[in-house]
Structures are given as structure tokens and as C-alpha cells.
Amino acid sequence: MSRFTQNLVLLLVGASIAVMVAKGTYVNYVKPSLLPWLVIAAVVLIVLGLAAVVRDVRGAGREPDDDVHDHAVHDYDGHRHRTGLAWFLLVPIAMVAFVVPPPLDARGAAAPPATSAPPPRSFAPLPPGPAPTVPVPEIVMRAAADPARSLDGRTITASGFTLRYPDGVYLARVVIVCCAADAQLARIRLSGPGAQAAAGYGEETWIQVEGDVVPGSADASNDFIPTLTAATVTRIDKPANTYAY
Q1: Looking at residues 105-134, what average pLDDT do you find?
Q2: CA–CA separation, 27 vs 220, rounded Å?
Q3: Mean of the per-residue pLDDT values for the chain?
Q4: What pLDDT is attached to residue 77?
Q5: Which of 50, 73, 97, 162 is within CB 3.0–4.6 Å of 16 for a Cys-Cys bond?
Q6: Torsion of CA 241, 242, 243, 245, to 10 degrees
Q7: d(C-alpha 65, C-alpha 67), whole Å
Q8: Model pTM?
Q9: Is 135 exposed, middle or buried (0-12, 13-18, 19+ CB in 10 A)?
Q10: What fold, for 136-235?
């Protein structure tokens, strides 16, 4: 690969990151809190790429040393390197900026079985109100690892998409810790009158559920997946950012 191509790749990577930041599509890859680092990375790559291109343009009129030139364009057998194929590296880089893949869904997120109980941990008090909104991943963690059992006796509201399994319908969210590469699936099994309504929706339909978590329902026998007795189920629009954090 020629130095010019290397510099162009560097510049195009920085520009692709800048385009994703400007369009907001970066949230399909990483969590929103990483936005400042993406901005810094884009600026650094663009500045380095431009500086390298300007340097090469200024030095284009200089006559290269014959020995160095011969070594650069021939390998040890005397054959000329084929650097044209290196330009194909630019195709996937450009596509990242202009062809945006959708965020991961249930098929793209792993749901590994729990091998042991999560260690007990403390949680902040639930928000006030008759049915506070609690994220699905937090419900899963509170049900399995909260020694204070803060969910017992509390009606809560949760939102996510439907998933059907042989034992019933589940409320799920795709959770990412850092980026889409570590995506996992957080699930809550639905029961009660709302479960039948949720089952009537198609797969991966976004819904809002109000109900109570069954005390002690998350244990090793079900991979620490809690059961929520759903009183009401309402269909909602798919959010702009489908990930939970």
C-alpha cells in the first residue's frame, strides 16, 4: 500500500466517525457516554490525515532516490508490487459512514445462561410514585441480587420488546456495557392477565407493561430470570435508541 493510500485511509476513517457523530448513528455501535471520545478520535484522525496528505503533496516535486524508489516498488524477486488492490480497503470504510446498519435485535444479542448467582449488591431506592418506571436490566439485577428485596410489593412499569419461548412470552431489552460487541439480552417472563395480551402481539413488538415482580421468582433453575405479573400491557412505538445500558 502506498503512503498516499495509507493517508487517505486515515483521513476517511476520521471522516466516517465524524459523519456517524453528526448523524447520531454512533449509538448503533457504542453507548452515548462515549460521544466525547469519538469526537476526539475523529478530530485527531482527520488532522493527522490532512497533515500527512499536505506533507506528501509538498514533497511530490522532489526527485526520489533511485535506490529507495526501486526498493519501494519491487519485491525481493524483482516483481512490481500491486498496490491497486489496497484501494478496496476504502470501500468498507466509506460504507460505514453512508450505509448504516440497524441496531442489534434479539437475534444479534447473546443470552448466556447464568452459571452462578450474582453477588448481592445495594441499589438506590425505587423512584416514588404508584408505578415507577424501572429499566428491564435493573429489574433483572434487583430480582436476583438485591438483599433488601426492594421490588417486593411494588408495582412497577417496564418497557421492551416481546419474545416468545416455549414457556411463555417475555419482555426483553438488548443491553450493551460498552459497545455492540458485548451486547446481551435481558429478559423478564410475563404472567397474569397481561401476558395473554402480550402474546397476541407479533415477535419483537414494543410494549409497556405495568405489574408486580413475583418474589423469589429469579433463581438458578431459570437462570435468574424474574417473572412479572402483568396487569396492563400497552403497545408503544419503537424508541429511537433501542439499547439499554
Answers
A1: 79
A2: 33
A3: 81
A4: 47
A5: 97
A6: 70
A7: 6
A8: 0.73
A9: middle
A10: OB fold (Dihydrolipoamide Acetyltransferase, E2P) (2.40.50)
Residue in this structure with the C-alpha cell 488492490, named with its chain if needed: 85
Judged by phi (left if over 0) then psi (alpha if -120 to 50, else beta), residue 214 lies in beta
- Segment 38-57 mean pLDDT: 85
**Contact (Cβ atoms closer than 8 angstroms) between residue 198 and residue 190:** yes
Q: Where are the domains of the chain?
A: 3-60+84-98, 136-235
